[in-house]
Design a protein that fits this description.
With 154 residues, the protein is α+β, with helices and mostly antiparallel strands. 17% of the residues lie in helices and 44% in strands.
């Protein structure tokens, strides 16, 4: 009976792992691990309510690892959000600044060399649809890639 229970626990763990939809990419010396995305019509954080009547906030939960030999300051220039038609959507500076007060936003985060940081980036989007997050290794003219945000845990 003990062997059956152990086998069941291993099978359950394996099933849960296979359904996890985390997406990881490396661009230059930076590793991006996208954990989930959420569409929000407003955000209420510690009595601060930011709301958009012209669409949604798209919050992307991610971990960024700096594999370089120097610290990197992350800002809006590391991220671009596009839809399937190629339209670019703005980084929500106001929302990211608010979240920065709670140490959750990656906006203006400094990540030391060989360290990682978990947090959020937030964009204003007009509709709930499929979006791609473009990321770079510190310079858009060099290395960059797109991460499809569809099929992530909501």
């Amino acid at each position: 009976m003990k062997y059956f229970f152990a086998l069941f626990v291993v099978a359950l763990f394996s099933c849960n792992n296979s359904q996890q939809k985390i997406k990881s990419v490396s661009v230059g010396a930076i590793d991006y691990k996208i954990i989930k995305r959420s569409f929000l019509s407003n955000v209420n954080t510690d009595a601060t309510k930011l709301d958009t009547s012209h669409g949604y906030f798209l919050q992307v939960d991610l971990t960024v690892r700096n594999n370089s030999i120097t610290a990197i300051k992350f800002d809006t220039s590391f991220f671009r959000l596009i839809n399937d038609n190629g339209q670019t959507f703005p980084f929500s500076t106001q929302m990211n600044e608010t979240m920065k007060n709670f140490e959750e936003s990656l906006h203006d985060a400094i990540i030391e060399n060989q360290k990682e940081k978990h947090g959020y980036i937030i964009f204003n989007v007009p509709t709930i649809e499929n979006y791609k997050l473009q990321v770079n290794g510190g310079d858009w003219d060099k290395e960059r890639t797109e991460i499809d945000l569809n099929n992530l845990e909501p």
